[in-house]
Design a protein that fits this description.
single chain, 226 residues, mainly alpha, Cytochrome Bc1 Complex, Chain D, domain 2, 2 domains
């Protein structure tokens, strides 16, 4: 029953996200405006280090939502910052002065780029029972099947079996992203520190029962998914 409820919530979230974010950007215009992003994320959206996420090919709708959320947080003040948009201190001031059309153009530009594959690592993790297990096997199992015992849904329902996401629904590509970034975001969703996943709390519900070893293994597996 729990699995069916989670699946329904994910489907409802997809519909809500599809309806709430419109994108009509000009990729060529976005390329001309991308200097503000290139310093950290690379000219083609493939950042050179995991300090900053790759934004190439994430999907226009998803990128636009993140840009709008980041800008909204940056422009908020006082107590409003805690409940507005998406908090990324490193992005403070980066989107100042940009119009919504600018954001749409940037989203179109980076969505048209191709994400470069990071690759997974051979590694082990210690699960909560104390057993040492192969991280790639655990990551693959969690990505494709979730964990029915703890109520963790599979990632494939939203992000596809190959990790390419669902651009029309606003779900981003994951495959090839830096493992460090994926791990950081899963921890943030689980802790309720990142809350811009909509009123249905899709990612917060998906991540809330993930263990630390599952998060590390999942992030490592995703980095090599293509």
């Amino acid at each position: 029953m729990k699995k069916h409820v989670l699946s329904l919530l994910l489907a409802m979230g997809a519909a809500a996200l599809t309806q709430s974010v419109s994108a009509a950007g000009d990729a060529s215009a976005g390329a001309d405006k991308s200097a503000v992003c290139a310093a950290c994320h690379g000219a083609d959206g493939n950042s050179p280090a995991p300090t900053f996420p790759k934004i190439a090919g994430l999907g226009e709708k998803y990128i636009l939502k993140q840009l709008r959320d980041i800008q909204a947080w940056d422009q908020a003040s006082g107590d409003d910052k805690a409940t507005t948009g998406r908090a990324i201190p490193e992005m403070t001031g980066q989107l100042s002065g940009l119009s919504d059309q600018d954001l749409q153009d940037l989203a179109a530009h980076y969505a048209a780029q191709t994400m470069q594959l990071t690759g997974s690592k051979e590694m082990t993790v210690k699960i909560n029972s104390g057993e040492i297990v192969d991280a790639l096997a655990l990551g693959q199992r969690t990505f494709r099947a979730g964990n029915q015992e703890t109520g963790v849904p599979a990632c494939t329902g939203c992000h596809s079996p190959t990790g390419v996401g669902n651009a029309p629904a606003g779900y981003p590509r994951l495959g090839g992203q830096y493992a460090e970034y994926i791990e950081k975001q899963l921890h943030a969703f689980r802790a309720g520190e990142r809350t811009n996943d909509g009123d249905q709390m899709i990612m917060r519900l998906a991540a809330k029962n993930l263990s630390d070893p599952e998060i590390k293994a999942l992030a490592n597996y995703i980095a090599g998914l293509h």
